[in-house]
Please model this.
Amino acid sequence: MKILFVGDIVGNPGRKILKTLLPGLKEEYGFDICIANGENAAGGSGITYTVAQELYNAGVDVITLGNHAWSKKEVLNFIDSDPRIIRPANYPQESPGKGSTIIETPAGKVGIMNLMGRVYMENIDCPFKAADRELEHLKAMTKVVVVDFHAEATSEKNALAWYLDGKVSCVLGTHTHVQTADERILPFGTAFITDVGMTGPHEGVIGVDRNIIINRFITHMPARYEVAKGAAQFNAVYVEVDVLTGKALDIRRVSQIST
Ligand SMILES: [Fe+2]
Model:
């Protein structure tokens, strides 16, 4: 199975470059499913119904979220009924939405799980234990499982990848908006990258207008964030998985900049 996973889509610049590049990438990689982290897709924080439809229409099959899952309250109107959008599985069980989903693709079924880190982030349930819980029902349905681990600390991402090596097809880090150059396949067949990167503005500070952020660092005064303008970047990873074993065969970084 061929999978394209798109790193955090930020605002209109991210959606625009996604729409521009996805048809060509589909031709180049022939992926069976496109998964994208969309927690910053609407105005740089959260997701709305209209924006989710825009991503689906562009060719995204499944949307994952993270710490900005609830930033746009409108998400509560559709997160329970839409099987293609998931939020971190280690949010409290009482939270709306679900932490994993199973999607039928031309190459077979794929399970997608979303988890969130706890280091320098919200103090939610243990992502390691949550992964085990979700895997119990996913593994009964398919051997191919993709994990989006939305986390800040490189150590936590590396630890979870090693913990899940051989249990899932890939652990793909999101949230930091900076693509790391450490993609590899671990000994028992799990593909891993610490962070897939960002699909959004290229000339800001991880997606936000750079002057606002520079000023915030200098003055320590609160400021309203705005999505940066200018050139855009597209960050993703391509992963190929053996559907019979669920083990990864290949992981490649995708990175493009448009003016
Ligand atoms: Fe995030």
Observations:
- The CA atoms of residues 61 and 151 lie 22 Å apart.
- The chain has a mean pLDDT of 97.
- The longest strand covers residues 248-258.
- The pocket of fe (ii) ion is lined by residues 39, 66-68, 150, 175 (CB under 6 Å).
